[in-house]
Amino acid sequence: MPGNLSKFVKSSCKDYSHKWVDSCISAAMGLGLDCLEESLKIYSTVYIASLLINRRKITKDVIIRTILGILQSSAFLSMTAFNFSANICALNRILGGMHVLTVSFLPSFLSNLVAIIIEKPARRTLLCLYVSNIATETLYNMGVWRGYFPRIPYGSAYIFAASISVLLYLHRAKRMDQDTVYKIIRFVIGPYEQFQNSNKKSEHLESTTCTESLNSNRECKRHTYNIIFKSFQIYKEIINNLKNKYKHWSCPHPHSCAHYILMSGTKLFSYGYGIQVAIQLILQSQQIFKRPKHIKNILFKKQYLNIATFLGAFSALYKLTSCLLRRTYNKDSPKFAIPAGLIASIAFIAFPNNTLALYFMWKGLHIIWNEGVEKGIFPEFKWFVILLYSFSTAILFHAAILEPQNLRSSYWKFLYRVSGGRIAVISRSPLEIFGMNSSKYLKEVLIRTNTSNQRTFTF
């Protein structure tokens, strides 16, 4: 438990933040250069992947914009690192020592406040959502560690259920195609559970089904003894029977409710499992070539099955509940998305993930706030994203230095990489007066994350 937080530590910045070099400027430059090198690797991957995903045509202008984007984002991140180190030294010299807020939180807040302005405005909101996500989890861990509140079983499931239900309702109640989160929602629940279809009576495509059946019968006569074709024919007959089952008039989908629910769940399960396995087969192709039995470990990995189960079950439960509500009330309504979303969230238990839950929570809050600003309910803060980003990142930097046990392991590894390992080498000994046992918990984190504080630096 922390104590003595009001203490003022009489320690030089060299003994604390850069014991490997005497000069404050050299320390800041060294951290900035290490961060720049890693930033170029990270953002080159991000921007090139974005080009491939968006299938943009590679032209001279696109290449130039991509290179400039990589340089701009890398400059933003490396400036954060440079300013962080410089601010620690500057505040130490001005105040003649260190307070718990000037050890990491305030230097980080000031450095991010300046550096984020370098980044593209279009990327600031994405970065803000990302760090706010991790900062929320970190603050919760800090509160549990201090004993302010107990750890809530399935807490992430409750957050996910509430957040996704709100987003699903907004998705049905109002056309919102501009946000990325709705592309994810449409991928999971399909094109029929959205705004333009909420009050539209669909037509059953009986003529198409009949045509398919006639074509299949003709082919069946020509290929009576073809086992593969027979299997395919049986499958098509089952699907056609499902399509021709009863569908309520208010349901927006074209075929029967049974077909709508079962095919959706199966398709999402297949996508969730198939994409993950395909990626791993490509990435681990050399290992598979050397050890062919390794393919079994990939095909039956529990994590891939859990993610696929979550996607398939969520889609199927959401559509099942929506169809039942339409039949019960003999109408369609955007409000049905709320109970349907809550029931579908049961699938989250198959793949409980804090990052996913907090992403939807912050996305929901962001969209609701923007809606409120447009309607004049909430005031508009032009610098809100920048301030929230700076505050959230400052919390993460504070945790990395003073209470690393409360920081997400993946973010610790990120800070370790971009700092060239300096985040682990910074001496926690002068900070023991704050009563947080930072040195003890640092050793535990180093073991858990397979990182080391035995590094040497030129600057």
UniProtKB/TrEMBL annotation:
Q: How does it sit in the membrane?
A: Multi-pass membrane protein
Residue ranges crossing the lipid bilayer per the database entry: 62-82, 94-118, 125-145, 151-170, 304-325, 337-361, 381-402
Subcellular location as annotated: Endomembrane system
* InterPro entries hit by this protein: Tmem135 (IPR026749), TMEM135_N (IPR031926)
Per UniProt, which keywords does this protein have? Answer: Membrane, Transmembrane, Transmembrane helix
- Domain of life where this protein originates: Eukaryota
Residue span(s) of domain Transmembrane protein 135 N-terminal: 12-144
Family, per entry: Belongs to the TMEM135 family.
Name of the protein: Transmembrane protein 135-like
Name the species this protein comes from: Polistes dominula (European paper wasp)
Q: Which gene encodes it?
A: LOC107072851
